[in-house]
C-alpha cells in the first residue's frame, strides 16, 4: 500500500499568501465599490528592457534553423552563461570558477533541492522572521520535529529584532546548515561584512555550511555592504550561494537562477571538490538544465547593456521604496528596510498584532500588505510592504494610507 510523506502533516497552518487572499477576497465581496491596492507580494511588475527581449528572441530564433537548433543542453547550464557569471563575480573582485557555477531555473526550487546532498539528521538554523521556504521545505524533508508554540522542534531560530538591526549573531548552539538571506526578505535588513564574517567563522569552527540566499543582492546601493558571501574571506570553505535572475532582471515568470558550490567547500568526511561533485551528480540525475531560450536571455542580462537597463528598473523599484518609507515615517510609524532592499518592515502601531494591522490597513485604506507573523514568531508585531509595483499604484496606495489610516 502506498503511504504519504507524513511530514506534510507537521506543517503549521495554511500558506501565508493563501490566508491573505482569503481575507482580501472577503473584504472585496463585502465592499464591492472599494479598489483594493496590493503592496503585499514581492512580484516584479515592470516589462523587460529591450536588450533582454532581444536576447530571449534570439533564443527562440535559434530553434528555427538546423544550424543553430539545440535540444538538451548541459545539466550544469550553458557554458557561456556560466562564464559570464564567473565574470560577473570577477568584476566584484571575487573569484568563482565556471565549474563552481550551476545554472538553475530559479532560487526557490534550489533551496529545497540543495538539501538532498546533506544528511537528514543535519540541524538547520534560520533567521526569525524568515522566508518560509527554508523552514517548510526542511519540515517536508523530515529534518524537524513537531510544531509547538509557533516553532518547530529541532530548528535553531536566530532572532532578528529591532535591537540587533534584524541581523542575528550566529547561534549559541551547534547548527549544521545555516540559512542566511541578505538583503533580507522580509525585514529589508542587509548584513555587513563584519556580521557575515561572524557566520563564516562560526561555520568554519563548527564544520557547518552556510546557505546564502542572495536573491536581492542587486538592490544594494551602499558600496560598503557585501553583495555576495564570497566577499568574506574563508567563505569559499563553508558557503553555498544561491542567486536568481528573478528580482535583478524581472525574470520572476521567465525563471532562471544559479547556485555556487565552491571546490574548496568541505564537510564531514569529504575532500575538496567532493560536495561540488555530489551536486553535479544530483543535477545530472534530476535536472535537465534550464531552458535554452531563457539562458540566452540570461546572457543578455549579464551584457553591459543588459546590466545598465536592469539597474534602471531596480532604481525605479527603490524609488517606490523611498516613497512608501517617507510617507509612513511622516505618519509617525517606525519603519525599517527599504534602503538596500525592496521591502519595508513596519513596526505595528500601538502593539497591534500583525494580523490586526493587516485588517486595519485593508479596512481603512484598502491596501493589502503582509503580516510579519507569517514569516515566523519573530515577525509578530511587524508588517511587510513591498516596493514592487507600478509607480501610479504605489502612489495611490500611499495617498490612501496617508489620508485614511487612523493611528
Ligand atoms: N529567495 C528569496 C529570499 C525570495 O524572497 C524569493 C522570492 O520572493 C526567492 C528566493 C525566489 O526566487 P526565484 O524566483 O528565483 O525562485
Helix content: 25-40%
| Distance from first to last alpha carbon | 58 Å
Mean pLDDT: 96
**What is the CATH T-level topology of the largest domain?**
Aspartate Aminotransferase, domain 2
Shape, per Cα inertia axes = globular
What small-molecule ligands were found?
pyridoxal-5'-phosphate
> In total, how many beta strands?
15
In short:
With 407 residues, this protein is of the alpha/beta class.
Primary descriptors:
14% strand, Aspartate Aminotransferase, domain 2, Aspartate Aminotransferase, domain 1, seven-stranded mixed sheet, binds pyridoxal-5'-phosphate, alpha/beta, 407 residues, 12 helices
Describe this structure in words.
With 407 residues, this protein is of the alpha/beta class. The chain has 2 domains: 129 residues, Aspartate Aminotransferase, domain 1; 252 residues, Aspartate Aminotransferase, domain 2, CATH 3.40.640.10. The chain is 37% helix and 14% strand. It is built from 12 helices and 15 strands. The strands form 4 sheets. The protein has a 7-stranded mixed β-sheet with strand order 2-10-9-8-7-3-6, with helices on both faces. Helix 10 packs parallel to helix 12. The radius of gyration is 21 Å and the shape is globular. The site of pyridoxal-5'-phosphate has 13 residues, from helix 4.
Amino acid at each position: 500500500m502506498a503511504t504519504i510523506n507524513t511530514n506534510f502533516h507537521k506543517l503549521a497552518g495554511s500558506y501565508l499568501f493563501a490566508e491573505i487572499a482569503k481575507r482580501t477576497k472577503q473584504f472585496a465581496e463585502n465592499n464591492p465599490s472599494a479598489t483594493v491596492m496590493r503592496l503585499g507580494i514581492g512580484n516584479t511588475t515592470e516589462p523587460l528592457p529591450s536588450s533582454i527581449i532581444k536576447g530571449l528572441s534570439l533564443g527562440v530564433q535559434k530553434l528555427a534553423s538546423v544550424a543553430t537548433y539545440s535540444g538538451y543542453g548541459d545539466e550544469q547550464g550553458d557554458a557561456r552563461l556560466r562564464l559570464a557569471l564567473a565574470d560577473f563575480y570577477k568584476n566584484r573582485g571575487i573569484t568563482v570558477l565556471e565549474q563552481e557555477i550551476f545554472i538553475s531555473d530559479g532560487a526557490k526550487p534550489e533551496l529545497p533541492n540543495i538539501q538532498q546532498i546533506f544528511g537528514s539528521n543535519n540541524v538547520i538554523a534560520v533567521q526569525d522572521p524568515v522566508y518560509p521556504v527554508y523552514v517548510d521545505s526542511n519540515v517536508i524533508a523530515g529534518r524537524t520535529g513537531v510544531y509547538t508554540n509557533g516553532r518547530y522542534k529541532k530548528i535553531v531560530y536566530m532572532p532578528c529584532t529591532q535591537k540587533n538591526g534584524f541581523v542575528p549573531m550566529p547561534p549559541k548552539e551547534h547548527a549544521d546548515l545555516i540559512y542566511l538571506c541578505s538583503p533580507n526578505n522580509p525585514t529589508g535588513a542587509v548584513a555587513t561584512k563584519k556580521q557575515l564574517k561572524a557566520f563564516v567563522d562560526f561555520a568554519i569552527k563548527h564544520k557547518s555550511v552556510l546557505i546564502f540566499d542572495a536573491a536581492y543582492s542587486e538592490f544594494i546601493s551602499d558600496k560598503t555592504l557585501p553583495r555576495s558571501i564570497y566577499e568574506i574571506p574563508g567563505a569559499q570553505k563553508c558557503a553555498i550561494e544561491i542567486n536568481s535572475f528573478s528580482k535583478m532582471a524581472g525574470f520572476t515568470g521567465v525563471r532562471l537562477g544559479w547556485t555556487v558550490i565552491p571546490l574548496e567547500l568541505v564537510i564531514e568526511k569529504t575532500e575538496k571538490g567532493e560536495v561540488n561533485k555530489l551536486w553535479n551528480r544530483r543535477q545530472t540525475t534530476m535536472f535537465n538544465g534550464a531552458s535554452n531560450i531563457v539562458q540566452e536571455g540570461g546572457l543578455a542580462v549579464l551584457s553591459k547593456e543588459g546590466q545598465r537597463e536592469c539597474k534602471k528598473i531596480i532604481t525605479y523599484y527603490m524609488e517606490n521604496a523611498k516613497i512608501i518609507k517617507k510617507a509612513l515615517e511622516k505618519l509617525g510609524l517606525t519603519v525599517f528596510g527599504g534602503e538596500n532592499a525592496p521591502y519595508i518592515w513596519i513596526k505595528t502601531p500601538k502593539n497591534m498584532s500583525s494580523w490586526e494591522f493587516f485588517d486595519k490597513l485593508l479596512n481603512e485604506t484598502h491596501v493589502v500588505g503582509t503580516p510579519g507573523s507569517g514569516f515566523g514568531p519573530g515577525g509578530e508585531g511587524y508588517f511587510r510592504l513591498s516596493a514592487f509595483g507600478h509607480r501610479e499604484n504605489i502612489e495611490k496606495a500611499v495617498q490612501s494610507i496617508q489620508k485614511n489610516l487612523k493611528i
